[in-house]
Every structure is written in structure tokens, then in C-alpha cells.
Amino acid sequence: MPQMSRQDPLIENHTVDYVPLAERHGKARDLFTLWFSTNIAPLPIVTGAMVAQVFHLNLVWGLLAIALGHLLGGIVIALASAQGPRMGIPQMVQSRGQFGRYGALLIVFFAALIYIGFFISNIVLAGKSIVGIVPSVPVPASILIGALSATAIGVIGYRFIHTLNRIGTWVMGSALLAGFLYIFAHDLPADFLTRGGFNLAGWLATVSLGVIWQISFSPYTSDYSRYLPADIGITRPFIATYLGATLGTILSFSFGLVAALATPEGTEAMVAVKQATGAFGPILMVLFLLNIISHNALNLYGAVLSIITSIQTFASQWTPSIKVRVVLSGVVLGGCCLVALGASADFISQFIGLILALLVVLVPWASINLIDFYLIKRGAYDIASIFQADGGIYGRFNLHAIVAYFIGIIVQLPFANTSLYVGPYANLVEGADLSWLVGLVVTCPLYYCLATRQRTQGSRAARLGYTD
């Protein structure tokens, strides 16, 4: 990516509007560094440790389940990311082309809620990390430091986020590899390879967790590819995103699994990382803290874009300025800090459970988004209509997409196994939430049939002279 020139503003000047072709820049490899660096962080490492601690898989079966889950789920995030260069607009704005101008509002609301949830969870985690490194710093001050740092990155925007993650790829990737080497260079417990075993429930739960992890990023992936040149195509952004997202998460999950097996059974995940990496542990903790802050900027950035998208739905002629984005970032920051400062000791686990439960609404959206872009419209959208007050050719509501979306949610509920709701068939495979699979299997063909039927009827009417 070229360096900023004197004409390039320090703070990104686009929000939810279309990025003109003359302002496109960057390389597909920028997507690799963004998604690789983003996923080398404490949260995926803690989640990876669950593979041994909660699902009781051994090293081999755990690694196989981790790899398969992320390799499958990575297809979704990569296909979503590859839309950015063609569209030149944020992912949630693009949803108007599938759901209609007002029909997309519900999806935008859920997306904003998920962004804010992860932002709050991460500033609490950052605050605890700061206290762990410098115990003399009070917890409230630590939380504010983490929140303000992430906000500053999010406000500056697209270029700075990509720049930090290019640096982070080398720093965090090297640190994680050094951590692996340190663990394997020292004596391992006698049961390192034999602790745990294979159980179908734990294996499927781990695979599902990997798939869901990747899908959770899909509502904002094209936000970070929309500045790429339009002629870059689909393949290169897909490959760069796929490799970055899958390799980063597989390494982090695997590191958590290895650290858990390299320490006594029952050791808390991040404590296990510190113990397993010895003298290198404190350095790793500092790097993890920096990465939490950098990654959390993506959550704030996505939340603000979603809020602006919602407001602009009712004010089609409004083009938000840099100042508006800065002010909204400050408002989101203030509200999130108030929640974080009053958070309970187990807030992170509770809130992550809530957010993961909300992913039930993302699976049908991702299904409709990908089917519509790749199979129905084949990337040919009318950008002008997306920004028109009446929705242009997409209208205010697309009932076919809305019906498929709600059916996609409803069919998941009997199989859901979340902190908010447990369906009557949730334990067909004990401990594994397979509702996402049901959502994909039902929503994809349903929307395709409804959308193609609509186009067939429109074409028939045109041939018979019933249209203008």
C-alpha cells in the first residue's frame, strides 16, 4: 500500500459512501496481514484452550477439529471480503441491495450490537491485561487506557488499521512461533500427548466453534477491502483473506490447546500461557495487550459505520463528515466505558455468550448475502439505487430476502445451544451447537429459489409487455 501523500488526510474522509475509483489503493496482500494479525490475540487462544479443558480432546484430534472448523468457516469470510473491491461500499450498506433500503435496518442493528459487545468485552480484557502487567495501575484507569487507544485507531480509520496490522503480522506471528518453540524446547508433561482423547460431541463442538468464529467477522469484512482497486478481481482478495483469517486463527487456537496441555490440568488459559512460556511469557502478554487494542479498533470502526448506515437510511442526502464520525466514536466510547467500568468479574464470559447467541441472526444473513452476490446478481449492483431514498431498483423492502431471513432464524432455534436459549433438539450431539448448519442448509436454497422465481416472473412479464 502506498504511503500517504500530502493530499491524503490523516483521518479517513469516507464513511458509508461509495469510494470513487480514483481513490482506490492497496494490494490484496493487505487483507492477509489484516486478518492474520487480528486473530493472534488472547480471546482465540483462550478459546483454543477450551478444546482440551472443556471438550476433552487430545492434541491430534483437537488440532484436526480446529483446522477443519476454520478452513470451512473461512470460505464465508473470504467470499464476503472479496465483494469489497467490486462494490466500494461497507458490507452493511450493501445489504440494502438484498433486503431493500429499510429491510436492511434489522441486520444493521444486530451487527452494531455485536460490534459494541465485542468492543466492551475487549476493553475489559485490555484493562485486566494492563493490571496484570502493571499492578499499580487501577482497573478503571486501565480500562480507559485500553478504550481510548482503540478509539484513536478507529477514528483515524482504514489506512492506519491496515498499517498496524501489517506490522502486527510480523511481530505477533514471530512472537507466537517463538512461544511454540519455547514450549517444545522444554520438558512437557508425561500426559501431553495422551491427555483427553476423541469424543464425537467435543470434536463437532470444536469444528462448529471454528465455523462460527469465522462467520462472526463476515458483516464487516468488505469494510476493509472496499478501497482496493475495482479491477483487482475476486480471486486475489478471496485467497488473501482466506489464508490470513484461517492461518491466524488456527495458529492461535492451536497455541491455546498446546499451552493447556503443557501445564497441569485445570490451569486457567492465560495462566497456562504464562507458565508454559516461562521467561518469554511477560513479553508475550505485552504484545497480546497491544494486539487487543489494535483489534478492538475494528469493532469500534464497524459499530460507527453501522450507526451511520442506520441514520443515513432516513436521510438519503446526508453525507457524514469526518467530524460526525469522530463525534459518534466518542459517544460509543463513552457508553461502552460506562458499561465496562460497572462490569462484574465474569462479565466477559457472559457477554461473549450473549454475542455468540446473537450469531444465530448472522448465519441466514451471510447465506443470503453470498447467494445474492455470487449466484443471483453476480456482482452487478446498481450503486446509485442503494443510496436513493426509495431504494431505487431494490425498493424499500425485499420480501423474498426478508422471508428467507426469518425462516433461516426460525429453523435454527430447535437446534440452538446458547446462553440465551436452548432448543429441544440442542443435545442431539451433546455440547455441540449445530444450529448454524441447519441455518445454512435451509436459507441458501430457499433464498435462491425465491430470488430466481422473482427474476423469472419479471422476465416473463417484460416479454408479455406488462412492464414499462
Written account of the structure:
The protein is mainly alpha-helical and 468 residues long. It has one domain (21-362): Hydantoin permease, CATH 1.10.4160.10. It is built from 19 helices and no strands. Helix 7 crosses helix 8 and helix 8 runs antiparallel to helix 14 (322-341). The longest helix has 33 residues, at 281-313. It is globular. It starts with 28 loop residues before the first helix and ends in a 5-residue tail after the last helix. Residues 1-7 and 461-468 have low confidence and may be disordered.
Gyration radius from CA atoms, angstroms: 22 Å
Q: What is the fold-level CATH name, i.e. the topology?
A: Hydantoin permease
User: What shape does the CA trace take?
Assistant: globular
Which runs of at least 5 residues are low in confidence (pLDDT < 50)? 1-7, 461-468
